[in-house]
Amino acid sequence: MINTTQNFYEHLRSRFGITNTRLNEFLHIERNRLFFNDIDLTHLSHEWGSPLEVGYNPIISTQISKMQGYFARAFHNNRYQGNFTYCYASKAAQYEDLIRTALTSGAHYETSSPMDIMMARLHWKAGNLPSDRVILCNGFKTQQYVDNIANLKREGFKNIIPIIESFDEIETLKRTGLNYEVGIRLRVDKSILPDGDFSKVTSRFGIPRHELDKVAAAINQTPGLTPVMFHAMIDTQCVDRQDWVKALLLSFRNYCELRLTYPTMRAFNFGGGMPVPYSLDFQFDYQAFANELTAGIMEMCAQYEIPHPDIYGEFGRYTAAAYGFDLYKVELVKSSHKSDVSWYVINGSLMSSLPDTWALKQQFIILPLTHFDRPVRKVWLSGMTCDSDDVYKSGEEDDAVMLPELHPGEHLTIGVFMTGAYQDMLSGIGGVHHCLLPEPSELVIEESPVTGAYEYRCTAPSQSLKTMASLLGYHKYLPLLEEKVHVAPQPTTVNSGKTRENSIFSFGKLQKARRRVLSLVANSLLN
């Protein structure tokens, strides 16, 4: 049961076991305000408005450095003879600044589609991706995908390893007439997994276990193809460390058996799955994972009398999740049919900006920026759209979110954290959202390489209605749209009735313009 006699900070302490004002690695409370590292989020929201989508670049370098450190210590302590390679899985988030930061922080590149290769090429040409790095190519190898891989090799980037997903891809690569080092991906199913969290995992990717020998032989017999890597992705967000390591080691035995026949095999890729903290009480021992996986691989290598392989990991969610967070203002407080639960309506859309909230019931960290000393209240958090699914399912009592109590006429800005991975890629970067809600302003925070000070760049202002209409194909109606209907971020510094009135008026103008455009389209169709 929720103790509503507590203030919000006391609720955090009792619910998540927090013992001081440090909430997790990057969030803390100072002077009754929420900070992201050393950034005062209240000040940030006052300066840039809301809704606001923030990308915090410095945390990418931190994440990469920490994971490299975990494996470096595991290798040193176990006297492991191979190397560790950290690859950024670009499908998690495709922002140029994010990928650039990951690459300059030492990450290698993992792709999953034809356009990924084109983006990798741009980073190579720009000097962000050194030629001695590796590009791993996952995903189904369409002709365009293979053509792009081949063209990049012809231009001079040699360290590309296509991961074979199906038998047909061997012939497609052969037809390019180029030489490739390739990987073999094992299809995950219950035949190779232990009982426990992964016992029901199935995948459409990779080669079935009973066909591994056939595919490996075909690769080895194909001129220009050399098998070098075994890929064994298990699942996503693998929070049970022991089950995950056990599943990987069961898969690694297949590598060992292939290595006895094909001595060119030298790398074991455990794929993705590294979990991230979607809750303040998240616990996962990354160092123990690296230690246990390394020790298990060494033990099995000794059994088969084979050398230690290089270990590769693909980190998308782990790299990008903490990079992104969203700020929203609670525009409206409404009563509900339950006397102890209120509706808090934000100035945005949860289902559009954070599609995993309704598609997967994904939980995120949701916190107020202020009012930690206020009484805690159960609330249902919803977006401003007219869709009944635009609500946040917390998985807690009544599916409610705990937030500070608001007095009549007050507003509250909240932060939704760990949104940097997949949310934009699923909802569409630059796309028009449900009910014509505009794309939020986008702010990138980088550290100056000279002074170390933060530099703030607005990489995309809030969309004008003209931009939104263009994206929807209403090009010939653009002269009829008034630019003054531009939907700018609403100010959060003033909680007066005037600010409230202005925010409603701006939204009303947007709806009027929307109806006008749709009316013109309807008339055009009738005529």
Automatic annotation (TrEMBL):
One of its GO terms (molecular function) is arginine decarboxylase activity. GO terms for biological process: L-arginine catabolic process; spermidine biosynthetic process. Residues 83-321 form the Orn/DAP/Arg decarboxylase 2 N-terminal domain. Gene3D superfamilies: Alanine racemase, Lyase, Ornithine Decarboxylase, Chain A, domain 1. InterPro entries: Ala_racemase/Decarboxylase_C, Arg_decrbxlase, De-COase2_N, PLP-binding_barrel. It comes from the Bacteria. Its cofactor is pyridoxal 5'-phosphate. Keywords: Pyridoxal phosphate. PANTHER family: ARGININE DECARBOXYLASE, BIOSYNTHETIC ARGININE DECARBOXYLASE. This is Arginine decarboxylase. It comes from Candidatus Chlorohelix allophototropha.
